[in-house]
Write a structure and sequence with these properties.
Length: 695
């Protein structure tokens, strides 16, 4: 036999299942410790996705039972919609089968690999089949089935199928809908940062609408670890919409396939109906740039013409793709999630506006917490997430970490020797990347690959929360010193005044002018509350003028603006400065007086608003507030104006009268004379009522 023929005869095709069977490390099953985390991750991610798509508040339980040797049993259960009988085999027994691969929208999973990999790993390492219990609401009974995988044929094998009533183990009540998975595998349960406990803790932070529980039992059935993370909000993530691909993210081969499969008769219709961001104007410009006739059939486009279209995509100005395909966590819920898992004294969060990279919409969210029980000795804790999924491995090689390390954290109050690496201090930083197409470094989805646009967005978000931390530390230091000074003055001066008056047989003098002269400062304090009757989050901002002359300031407060929230109960009016930023003008603040700004925010739940950042504009420092960065404010306004303009282009049917009305509302400003509302700082004033600060 010819050598070439002999070599050719040895070629043998393998199925995708066989490939993953021999390369299980691609799926995250490379060590015993990581294997159990990967299995939990795939099960929990599927449960969360299923619940959210069915608009069900997730209830997820995870149980781990240690067995002999290095084996354990993993049981996960949820209250999701369940899986119909006819789909169970495909969902659990076939690789690269899923409902999300071709959908351009934010989802946790896309490839159709994860849960099938868990079934395969259990079969490969423990020789066991996976037991599945599924109950859908329309069926009177649940399906009980045992599944394995035929790796050569990439399909499930089933046995022991039956139907029966599925009862809750605690209440003995029938379960209306849900899914239960039980599998044995070679794996090792451990505690610490890279553990199932840490994974579920992190999952609860970015999924505050979910209740998650964990129970770990030893070989004798005794509970050795138990924890739960209850939901902190009943608000489900917003429903994401599918979008069409954007020309900036299309490759030549994909374009050729789309042209070949097109049903449209004209190229203008093809471009408008198959891509997002392409108007009739843009379609004609693309075709003109490509030297193609508008009425030409898509099926008649050659490879050379298709390449010309790819080049034209980069030259013609196109609208950005819609961003309703993304579901960010949002500032308030990030804070609630962090507070649920981490005891801290300060939290700063930012949700950046959606951006586009390579035609794919993405959005960056960052949260920073400081103080509390966080350790001050070691590196800060980094919590990385992609589409609400924790990333627990390959931290050093992840884009999210690299962007954090690119910031000089010493400027913002953290220990950062040489400005390199991970800073040290009592802090934790959350980084969340929401995208329709997260580019990971491997199939195990443990780290995000490099991308300049995403890197820059994370860096800018870091700078913003860093400024928030710097302002907090400065504010705390100033208030502490001011409080100590004020307490000292209030103790010593009255005693001196009393003794002197007694010695001279005179009335005690008015100390207010003296205290004012000594203090010589303007202070600001804010207090947040909750009005149960009106269901309002309330805020009071008090400005104290301990100086010898009248002052004038503009006070600005950051508030949780979002869908469903609004400023209310705001007697002093004021005006919107930017998204989440409201301002009030204080024309006259007389010496030795104080004035208070009151306002409420509707559309919140109790506990959702825990802190308010206060800024000021005017001459003279205000202790307890931060001077507004006018350049940053202007950039924010320009960004919002650009987003609004793009939205108007996408919705041209809106009446101009409505646009004019909104513009007038946003530009309206109200100035208030507050002299009548001012109160003396020295009447019935005590240290407790005045400058007491929570450190």
């Amino acid at each position: 036999m010819d050598p070439a023929e002999r070599l050719a005869s040895k070629q043998k095709q393998i199925s995708i299942s066989e490939f993953f069977e021999k390369n299980k490390h691609f799926l995250g099953f490379d060590t015993l410790q990581r294997s159990v985390i990967t299995a939990v991750k795939e099960s929990v991610d599927n449960s969360l996705d299923a619940c959210e798509e069915s608009r069900i508040l997730p209830e997820i339980s995870v149980e781990i039972q240690r067995l002999k040797g290095d084996r354990l049993r993993l049981i996960t259960q949820d209250n999701g919609p369940g899986i119909p009988r006819e789909d169970i085999e495909n969902v659990f027994g076939k690789f690269l089968l899923g409902s999300r691969f071709h959908a351009i929208r934010q989802t946790r999973g896309q490839q159709g690999i994860g849960i099938t990999g868990v079934v395969m790993y259990g079969q490969l390492t423990a020789g066991s089949k996976t037991k599945v219990v599924s109950k859908v609401a329309r069926d009177s009974s649940a399906v009980f089935v045992e599944l394995g995988i035929d790796t050569r044929r990439n399909r499930a094998t089933k046995s022991g199928e039956s139907r029966d009533t599925w009862l809750d183990e605690k209440t003995s009540e029938p379960i209306p809908h849900g899914l239960r998975i039980e599998t044995e595998m070679r794996a090792k349960y451990q505690r610490g940062r890279q553990s199932v406990h840490q994974y579920l803790r992190m999952t609860s932070i970015v999924n505050p609408h979910a209740s998650i529980s964990l129970v770990v039992r030893d070989r004798d059935g005794r509970t050795i670890e138990e924890d739960s993370w209850q939901r902190t909000t009943d608000r489900l993530p917003r429903v994401v919409s599918e979008i069409r691909p954007h020309p900036h993210g299309i490759q030549l081969g994909s374009l050729q396939r789309m042209l070949k499969e097109a049903e449209e008769r004209k190229m203008t219709s093809f471009l408008r109906h198959n891509f997002s961001g392409v108007s009739m104007r843009a379609a004609r410009e693309i075709l003109a740039e490509s030297d193609l006739d508008e009425g030409r059939s898509p099926k008649r486009i050659s490879g050379e013409d298709a390449q010309g279209m790819i080049n034209a995509f980069r030259k013609v100005k196109l609208l950005s793709p819609p961003t309703d395909c993304l579901s960010p966590i949002e500032d308030l819920l990030i804070k609630k999630g962090l507070s649920k898992a981490i005891d801290s004294r300060f939290a700063s969060t930012i949700t950046r506006s959606p951006k586009v990279t390579q035609g794919n919409p993405f959005q960056i969210e960052v949260g920073l917490v400081f103080g509390g029980d966080l350790s001050a000795d070691g590196p800060i804790e980094i919590l990385r997430f992609a589409n609400r999924v924790p990333l627990m491995y390959q931290q050093g090689g992840c884009l999210l970490t690299k962007a954090l390390e690119a910031v000089d954290w010493k400027r913002y109050g953290l220990d950062h020797p040489g400005g390199k690496g991970i800073p040290k201090g009592p802090a934790a930083v959350l980084i969340h990347l929401a995208s329709t197409n997260v580019q990971f470094t491997s199939e195990a989805k443990e780290a995000v690959s490099d991308n300049e646009e995403v890197f820059e967005e994370i860096r800018l978000a870091m700078l913003e929360v860093g400024r928030g931390l710097k302002g907090h530390l400065k504010k705390s230091s100033q208030r502490k010193k001011a409080r100590e000074k004020f307490e000292l003055i209030n103790i010593i001066l009255p005693e001196i005044s009393k003794k002197s008056s007694e010695l001279l047989s005179r009335e005690e003098p008015d100390l207010a002018p003296i205290i004012t002269k000594i203090m010589d400062a303007v202070f600001c304090e804010e207090e947040l509350g909750w009005d149960e009757e009106r269901r309002l989050g309330t805020c009071s901002i008090t400005i104290y003028n301990y100086t010898a002359r009248a002052r004038a300031y503009t006070i600005l407060a950051k508030w949780p603006e979002g869908d469903g929230t609004a400023i209310s109960d705001n007697p002093l009016g004021g005006a919107k400065q930017a998204k989440g930023l409201w301002a009030w003008r204080l024309d006259t603040l007389n010496p030795g007086t104080a004035t208070t700004i009151h306002f409420g925010v509707s559309g919140l739940r109790k506990g959702e608003w825990s802190d308010a950042e206060i800024f000021y504009r005017g001459n003279g420092e205000v202790i307890g507030a931060t001077k507004i960065d006018e350049k940053l404010l202007e950039e924010l306004r320009k960004s919002e104006a650009l987003e609004a303009a793009e939205a108007e282009l996408e919705q041209p049917k809106e009446a101009m009268s409505q646009l004019k009305e909104r513009t007038e509302e946003s530009e309206a400003s109200q100035t208030q004379t507050l002299s009548e509302g001012q109160t003396s700082l020295f009447e019935d004033f005590t240290t407790k009522d005045g400058l007491e600060v929570d450190e």
